[in-house]
Specification:
By secondary structure, the chain is an alpha/beta fold. Strands 1, 2, 3, 4, 5, 6 and 17 form a seven-stranded mixed sheet that branches. It is globular, with a radius of gyration of 24 Å. The relative contact order is 0.12.
Length: 478
């Protein structure tokens, strides 16, 4: 076994790890990048990019099915499952290729392959071949999808989202367990591509929404299209020939159904349980994640930093990149640790209607600003441009701080939410007041006029310190 000395060791070569490595090198430090699996980020291989490829195909199919409502009647529509998945895999491989090309620019001596475990706070054993002595360490080991052990016994047709993107064709049926972002995105996409899909949820959650009014509006809109079942307990998943027998129970009783696949989308677990953290002296939370400062990414007062999905905070690519940069920079400058830029939280689910949250959530404000915030709202059901597009589903709620009038955040389900959310997130990060936001230009007819309606309602509430469900704006652009 050889010994290697470095100033910064980064465990994990995903988005957070690559960002940390580059930050450490930019700070002038020697750094090594340790990876136990394949190079190529989660986003490129099995996350944001291949899922959006599948969703794009589903949107094309849905546009044809929705066309008759506009008086347009397409003929001879056929979904070629093999062609759909061939494009998904081909473009996925292209995106992964870009990541691999980037890896080639990292000096070979800075790359180590093998599983890393802490021997102590400054020493790592990599595989059976190298001990790395490091002045500081960045943990960027990512996360993995959760699958209950009992389900695994049913065999390879119990899958996680990763497996979908290796399919060579589309299956007949899929049971999706979980109504989070992944479950809704993939479940709706497969449904629109002709797969029989049922989505099972233990509770009433819808993606990342915490505002009950927005959540209920989203659930109603999704339920118009999808077999979306809330309040369901999965009793068992068993292999039955070439299918899976899924037994479940809800308020109506017990049910047994057969599916080609069961997709587990019940959450993700940080990959920190096999790192030897017990040898570091770090304080850990109930899930075994080191307790860290969210502004510096430092674990306690140690020379160990954490970033990306491994810290179990916000499992999103932009967050992983930002956290990695902060962690790598501080690891390089240790013990001179400084806060880095943590941007306004922004999350988007690419189902239809799209779902987005930004800034402080309703749940967070109920804890941090109880009695000190109010909301404004708008329904997209009668919003002008939304009706024109026949995408008039969902609701937007915006939150403001009593006294200061500052815009605090929003939750929404509706058309073009990915764009509306960016607009609002920028305003939130700029710490604009609601009045300042209303001074901005709004064109007509655009979906953004719905944002103006919600902001006008919020401005009224900030003055009167009370919430009314009706929107006071009845202009044509409502």
């Amino acid at each position: 076994m050889k010994t290697l000395s470095t100033e910064v060791a980064v465990i994990g070569a995903g988005t957070a790890g690559l960002s940390a490595y580059r930050a450490a090198r930019l700070a002038g430090k020697r750094a090594v990048l340790i990876e136990s699996g394949h190079y190529g980020t989660t986003c490129a291989r099995v996350g944001c990019m291949p899922s959006k490829l599948l969703i794009a195909a589903a949107e094309a199919a849905h546009a044809l099915s929705a066309a008759p409502a506009f008086g347009v009647h397409p003929q001879g529509v056929r979904i070629d499952g093999e062609a759909v998945m061939a494009r998904v895999r081909s473009e996925r491989d292209r995106f992964v290729g870009f990541v691999l090309e980037g890896m080639e620019h990292i000096p070979e001596e800075d790359r180590l392959l093998g599983h890393a475990r802490f021997l102590d706070a400054n020493r790592l054993q990599v595989g059976e071949h190298t001990v790395v002595q490091a002045d500081s360490v960045v943990i960027a080991t990512g996360s993995r999808a959760k699958v209950p052990d009992d389900w695994k016994k049913a065999g390879p047709r119990v899958i996680i989202s990763d497996a979908v993107f290796d399919w060579t064709t589309l299956p007949d049926s899929v049971a999706v367990v979980g109504s989070g972002v992944i479950g809704l995105e993939l479940g709706q996409a497969l449904h629109r591509l002709g797969v029989r899909v049922s989505i099972f949820a233990r509770g009433s959650s819808v993606a990342q929404l915490s505002d009950p009014a927005v959540r209920d509006s989203a659930a109603r809109a999704l339920g118009l299209e999808l077999d979306l079942r809330f309040g369901v307990t999965i009793a068992s998943v068993e292999k039955e020939g070439e299918q899976l027998l899924l037994r479940s129970s809800d308020a109506k009783g017990e049910h047994s159904e057969r599916f080609s696949y069961v997709l587990s989308a019940i959450g993700r677990a940080p990959n920190v349980d096999n790192l030897g953290l017990e040898h570091t002296g770090l304080a850990l939370d109930k899930d075994g994640v080191p307790i860290y400062d969210k502004h510096t990414m430092q674990c306690g007062g140690s020379a160990i930093f954490i970033a990306g999905d491994a810290d179990d905070e916000r499992p999103l690519l932009p967050e992983a990149a930002d956290q990695g940069k902060i962690a790598g920079d501080n690891a390089a400058r240790y013990p001179q640790v400084t806060p880095g830029l943590r941007r306004t939280p922004l999350t988007v689910a690419f189902c239809e209607p799209q779902i987005a949250t930004l800034g402080a959530s309703y749940k967070e404000l109920c804890a941090s600003h109880a009695g000190r915030f109010v909301f404004g709202q708008v329904s997209f059901e009668n919003q002008g441009r939304s009706r024109v597009m026949l995408q008039n589903h969902g609701m937007l709620r915006v939150y403001g701080e009593l006294g200061s009038g500052r815009f605090l955040g929003a939750e929404l389900a509706g058309p073009r939410a990915e764009h509306l959310a960016h607009l609002l997130a920028w305003a939130c990060q700029a710490r604009l007041t609601v009045d300042q936001m209303l001074d901005m230009p709004f064109y007509h007819p655009v979906v953004e006029e719905g944002v103006r309606t919600a902001l006008r309602d919020l401005a009224h509430q900030l003055v009167h310190q009370e919430n009314r469900p009706e929107c006071p704006d009845c202009t044509p652009g409502v």
